[in-house]
Design a protein that fits this description.
The protein is of the alpha/beta class. The chain has a single domain, classed as P-loop containing nucleotide triphosphate hydrolases (Rossmann fold, 3-Layer(aba) Sandwich), CATH 3.40.50. It has helices at 13-24, 32-44, 52-60, 69-72, 75-84, 88-102, 115-119, 133-146, 153-169, 191-211, and strands at 2-7, 28-30, 108-112, 125-130, 182-185. Strands 2-3-1-4-5 form a five-stranded parallel sheet, sandwiched between helices. α1 (13-24) packs across α10 and α8 (133-146) crosses α9. The longest helix is centred in the last third of the chain and has 21 residues, at 191-211. It is globular, with a radius of gyration of 17 Å. It starts with a strand and ends with a helix. The structure holds cytidine-5'-monophosphate.
Length: 212
């Protein structure tokens, strides 16, 4: 079984993905880490974020063990990831890795922006996780503050809007809900309630599949 979880930044998609992967015993790939690591590696080696050929070659030879989780999770890494992820050669360099993961024997769960539309359009279950931008920003802001980042809430709202715009309007694999995805709106939900809702949605899709 392949489960594809896409959605907007700080919508709760990452937590939902981890919890569903554990529930169903599926290996999980957080595909955002690939774009974040590509961007961080470029910044470390002073490669301009518009040098598509060099960025693609960085993406093709990534070793995620070279990166600390804390450096991948910063707001700057997210922003830079969103810039490099708009480059078609970077997406191409990361495609096979993700596709092979999706096709693992025994199934897989991947989360990102284009899993249900590009990486695994054949997924058994697709979720699109979203929430109001103010709510998402507040969650992200708390996370950043806890990590010692002094950014203001207004600035985080602005950054998320920018990121949504860039992710949804790029020409190659824009972030969008697949036609057959189930929407999970987490605006007014605690993380526990959001996970339960996502789990119920997956169960409903599987039950429908089993009847046909
Ligand atoms: O999900 P996360 O915030 O870690 O992703 C960072 C950035 O990587 C996103 O804003 C998006 O631009 C890019 N991304 C993508 N396709 C994916 C996963 C992430 O373009 N499948």
């Amino acid at each position: 079984m392949i489960i594809a979880i896409d959605g907007t930044t700080a919508s709760g998609k990452g937590t939902i993905a981890k919890r569903l992967a554990a529930w169903y015993g599926l290996p999980h790939m957080d595909t955002g880490r690939l774009y974040r690591a590509t961007a961080i590696a470029a910044l470390k080696h002073s490669v301009p974020l518009n040098d598509e050929a060099r960025l693609a070659s960085i993406a093709a030879s990534l070793d995620l063990d070279d990166f600390e989780e804390s450096e991948l999770r910063t707001a700057d890494a997210g922003k830079a990831a969103s810039v490099v992820s708009a480059l078609p050669l970077v997406r191409k360099a990361l495609f096979e890795l993700q596709r092979a993961f999706a096709l693992r024997e025994g199934g897989a769960l991947l989360d990102g922006r284009d899993i249900g539309t590009v990486i695994a359009p054949d997924a058994d279950v697709k979720l699109w996780v979203d929430a109001a931008v103010e709510q998402r920003a507040e969650r992200r802001w708390k996370e950043l503050r806890a990590n010692g980042d002094g950014v203001t809430l207004d600035r985080v709202i602005e950054q998320l809007r920018e990121r949504d715009m860039r992710d949804q309007n790029r020409a190659d694999a824009p972030a969008k809900m697949a036609a057959d995805a189930v929407l999970i709106d987490t605006t007014d939900l605690t993380i526990e309630a959001a996970v339960e809702k996502a789990l119920a949605a997956v169960e409903a899709v599987l039950a429908r599949g089993n009847r046909t």
